[in-house]
Amino acid sequence: MIREKVEDIARQIEAFKADTQEELEKYRMRFISKKSVVGELFAHLKDVPNSEKREVGQLLNQLKQQAQSKFQVLIGDVESKSSGADQAPVDLTLPPAGFELGSVHPLTYTRNKIIEIFERIGFNVADGPEIEDDWHNFTALNFPENHPAREMQDTFFIEKNPDMVLRTHTSGVQIRMMENQQPPIRSIMPGRVYRNEAVSARAHCVFHQVEGLYVNKKVSFVDLKQTLYHFAKEMFSKDTKVRYRPSYFPFTEPSAEIDISCQICHGDGCQLCKYTGWVEIAGSGMVDPNVLENCGIDSTEYTGFAFGMGIERITQLKFQVNDLRLYTENDIRFLKQFRTLH
Ligand code: DAH
Which of 23, 82, 128, 233 is 20 to 30 A from 171, comparing alpha carbons? Predict the structure, then answer.
């Protein structure tokens, strides 16, 4: 009796077809689950006489396996049917969807643009280490020892060697240039700098500067003014106004901060320029004779000007980026807005 039942169920399994999930479930209930016909037969195994138990047990196991492997086949059938059904017919003549191309980071764009502007008027590009010694970051730049200006810069010191710091500005590269070559020197030095600041919309512990240096015979403040005047017009627009405000840096004398007319309100007054119409873009000045001498350059023969500006700041003014954190968060919604730059 039980043998006939097994044969009958085996035929049913063989003949079963499934096109949909519902049919598949029907199959599972009927042949796989605990309460399936196959399960029921197993329950009856205890009524089979002992002498036949072994043989019948083997038959049932075979049936169970048959049910399982057919189930796998049916799953495959249903999957291929349903995925085909959901898809529109493929049009092989359509052009491909295309790749999403990345774009230049706005800071990279600004850095390249600054380099381009200065290269066109004869500046070359130089580089220096981000882990800098006290001499290049401070002492040679005329920061006296224990001078409060050192603290002003919120320096990160290297724990194992207090003589080494993460550079707080790119001005140390000026020193390296002047130590390694005699004038004329006409270079810009872009790079990353570090300060021990809490990260906020207006301050960051890592940012970028571009340093500029021109040393030669008879370099004057007029050269400085004209160079940065040219830069501001090229970087922003021809009608950008520039003003020089007296300031102090240990490594320049005299020193000036450079402001440009606000790019947002064009002088009418807005939040960005704090209703003054002007925004600061750089520090600058005539290289202090002490600094020239520290580097082995004769200050009676040569003079020079220097300037330093923040790349984030210039980018902010150009593209109205009002939160410094955006530059490093890699938010694709921010980065996508610069797609057309190159
Ligand atoms: N190093 C200055 C800073 O980080 C910027 C600066 C000011 C650089 C005047 C210069 C300069 O070369 O002449 O704030």
Answer: 233
For domain 106-338, the CATH superfamily is Bira Bifunctional Protein; Domain 2 (3.30.930.10)
- The encoded tokens of residue 30 equal 């009927």
Which has the closest alpha carbon to 158: 139, 132, 176?
Answer: 132
Q: Which of 239, 233, 243, 228 is nearest to 273 (CA)?
A: 243
State pLDDT tens for residues 214-233.
Answer: 999 999 999 999 999 999 99
Q: Is 307 in the pocket of ligand 1 (CB under 6 A)?
A: yes
pLDDT at 154: 86
Separation of alpha carbons 269 and 264, rounded Å: 9
* 209 Cα nearest atom in ligand 1: 4
Residues in the chain, overall count: 342
Instruction: Find out whether the beta carbon of 236 lies less than 6 Å from any atom of ligand 1.
Output: no
Strand arrangement, sheet containing 156-158: 131-133, 161-166, 156-158
Distance 193 CA to ligand 1 centre (A): 12
166 contacts: CB under 8 Å, gap ≥ 6: 130, 131, 132, 155, 156, 158, 193, 194
State the pairing for strand pair 206-216/242-249. Answer: unpaired
Is the Cβ–Cβ distance between 155 and 306 less than 8 Å?
Answer: no
Spatial separation of the C-alpha atoms in residues 55 and 119, rounded to whole Å: 92
For 138-157, write each residue's pLDDT tens digit: 999 999 887 776 766 688 98
Pick the residue whose CA is nearest to atom 3 on ligand 1: 169
